[in-house]
Amino acid sequence: MKKVLVLGAGLVTQPLVRYLLEQPEIELIVASRTVSKAVALIENHPKGKAIELNVKDDVKLEELVIDSVVTISLLPYTYHVKVAKLCLKHGVNLVTTSYVSDAMNELNDEAKEKGLLLLNEIGLDPGIDHMSAMKIIHDVEKNGGKIVSFESVCGGLPAPEANDNPFGYKFSWSPRGVVMAGRNNARYLKDGIEKSIEGKDLFKNHWNKDVETLGTLEVYPNRDSMIYKPLYQLNDAETIFRGTFRNPGWCSTLLNIAKLGYLDDTERPELADKTFAEVAAKLIGTDSPDSIKSKVADHLGIEADSEIIKRFEWLGLLSDEKIDADPVTYLDILANRMLKMMPYKKGERDMIVLQHDFIAEYDGNKKEHITSLLIDFGIPNGDSAMARTVSLPAAIATKLIVDGKINITGVQVPVMPEIYEPLLDELEKMNIKFKETKEVLG
Question: Rounded to an integer, what is the distance from CA 375 to the centroid of its chain?
Answer without folding.
Answer: 15
